[in-house]
Structure formats: C-alpha cells, structure tokens
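Support case: user asked for a sample of complex input and structure output to validate their parser. Sending the pair below.
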Amino acid sequence: MRANRSLEIGTGLFVLLGFAALLFLSVQLPANGLKFFFNKPVGYAVTAQFDNIGDLKVGAPVRMAGVRIGQVTKIDFDTNTERAKVWLRISPRFNQIPLDSSAAIDTEGLLGGQYIAISPGAMPTYLTNGSRILETQSALVLENLINKFFATEANKSHGSGGGAKESK
Amino acid sequence: MSNGARVGVLELVRKTGETSVFFLRLLAACIPALGRPRLIIAQIYNAGARSLIIIMLSGLFTGMVLGLQFYAVLNRFGATEALGTAVALALLKELGPVLTALLFAGRAGTALTSEIGLMRATDQLTAMEVMAVDPMRHVVAPRFLGGLIAVPLLTAIFTVVGLFGAQLIGVQFLGVDHGIFWSQAQSAVALKDVTEGVVKSVVFGAVISLIAVNEGYHSEPTAEGIGRATTRTVVASSVMTLLLDYVLTAIFL
C-alpha cells in the first residue's frame, strides 16, 4: 500500500507538471495570451500619444540615450484625440526626467523590434506618476517613406518636363 | 533484384502487416483496459515520471544551445531581438516533439520491449492466457496507453524548460532585453503552432509505444532475440519519428 501511494504521488506530480507546461504553451505563449506571469514592471506610469505607433508592442523597452529605463505596459486608441495612447512604466531610479522631454518610436537594428526613445528636455520639473509626454514623434513606416520618395521623384521629373508644378 | 533484397522487402512488408494487425487487436483491448486505471497509472509513472529528469536536462541544454546559436547568427544581421521568435518556434514545432520522441524511444521504448519480451521468454504471457487473463488487456494495453499519455506531457515540459534555457542564455548572459525576448516570442507564436506541436507529440507517442510493445510481444523468446527486438525498437521508432515529422510538417504548412 505504501509503495502504491508514492507511485500515485509521483504520477500525479508528473501529470500536473505536464499539464502546467501545456497550459503555459497554449495560454501564455500565443500572441493573444493572458499576461499574468511575466514580471510586473515597477516604477511610475507616464502616458504619451502618437499619431502612428507602427509595430510597437507591449513589453517594448523605453530607452534614454540608449539605456533601458522602463517598458511599455499598455497600448490603446484614444477616441477623443484619435491617436494611439501608450502607457510607459519608468523605473523609480530615473525620477529626474524633465517634464518637457520628448518621446520617439525608433527601430532597433534593421529587423529588430521597436522601442521608445526619450530625449530629455530642459525644464526643472520632472515627470511623475500620471504625467503625459506632450512632444512625440511617430514611428517611421518604411512603406510611407518609399511612397513619399517616389512621389517627390515623380513630381521632380514632371516639374522638369512641364515646369509648372512645385514639388512639396 | 537479388535474393537478399527480396527477403528484406518481404520482411518489411510482413513486419508492417504484423504491426497493423497487432494495432487493431491493441485498440480492441484498450477499451476494457481503461476500466483498470491503476495499471495505466503505474505505466505512466514508469514511462513518464521516471523520464522526467532526462527530458528536463535535455530540454534545458537544447534551449541553451539554441539561444547561443541563434544569437550568434542573428547578431550578424543586428537582429538579436528576433531571438525569442526563433527559439520559440524552433522548440515548439520541431525540436520539442522530435527530441522528446527520440529520447523517449531510448529511455522508455527499450524498457517496454525488453520487459514484454522477457515476459514472453519466461512464459509469463502464456501462463496468463492459461489462467484466462488476457495479456493484451492486462500487460500490453496499459503500457501502450501509458506511453501515449506520457509523451505529449513530456514534450510540453521539454519545450517549456527549453524556452527558459534559451531565456537564461539570451537574456541573462548575452543581454537581449527580457521584455523584447518574451514579447517577440509571443507575437510570433499562434495557437496553431502550439497545436502542431501537440498533435506531433501525440502521434509520436502512439507510434513509439506501438512499435515498442509490438516488438516485445513478437520477440524471439531468447536472450539474443530480446536484444535484437530492443535494437529494432530504437531503430524503427527513430526512423518513424523523423519520417512522420516531415509528413506532419507538410500537412500543417
């Protein structure tokens, strides 16, 4: 009876562990998964609004001069301003970021993910919990850039031919 | 065609037929075997719980080496942020199911074959038949079901441990951002990819367990015969795993 009991406990542990792993794979890993496991970011929350966030994702780092100071915790669409609203959580060690700092969405490397780069302003007051970064710069979307480039090229050649139209 | 080749082909066809007939008998015996869950639990313990250490260790090192290799390659393109994507997909879709199946064939499949083969050699199976106890129902079916249940669970454990192994190397040692690693992994993995891994592992579990119990049941009742049957189990289940892996991948794409 004793041996039987320890066998059942061993099997039970194995099966539970297996199902926990399956649960992790099916609930936690896919893109629409719940996010109850990964480390809760600490620090104060700041918001910023962007015209276009491109490919920015929750969990993307917030950097200042290239140093990681926090991360993106939530992305939503603001129906009032019709812009993307991004919540950032910045580590409490970096509590002296000027209030008029600006936020830009940059891309890491050629194929890398996007992150938020903060460039410091000059005001003597600092960002605190709940403040909003006013000055923002949208993500550069490569397709738009290419379109713009070709549009100007087309205008240019048209302009040199007809001479009537000014390029933007 | 030479005589040897003809005998070889004939033997392959015979073996396929033998396994197929055995599979049908096994399926018929599985339903009454479900009425004795204790026998199955004992086999899940033997095949699954006791393979846990080797699976977790292999998963950890597989994940770590994947993290290292992918980092080195991705670093050339300045795309180390894609590490999470690469590791998660590689583990989930291919390495998790296949490596677990190969390890399972070596660790538990051989044990199944030699156990049943020795029962055959020592006339225990015949003795059960004499006592009107169906060995298919009491010996073979629980072992098959135990393997079938254990392999998908082991695969899931292997994959999760591997992911954390890759995270250990990529994030802690090589300095990929923690948030990026997981968010990239999450954004690349769809539920379909998880399903693919689970379906593969169930199929591998069924095939390996079937080959193992079949080889044991039909092994020559000598010491040498059991040895040969055990070898055949490893060879056949490894080849079948890799072959079916290709077929299943083609189906899922």
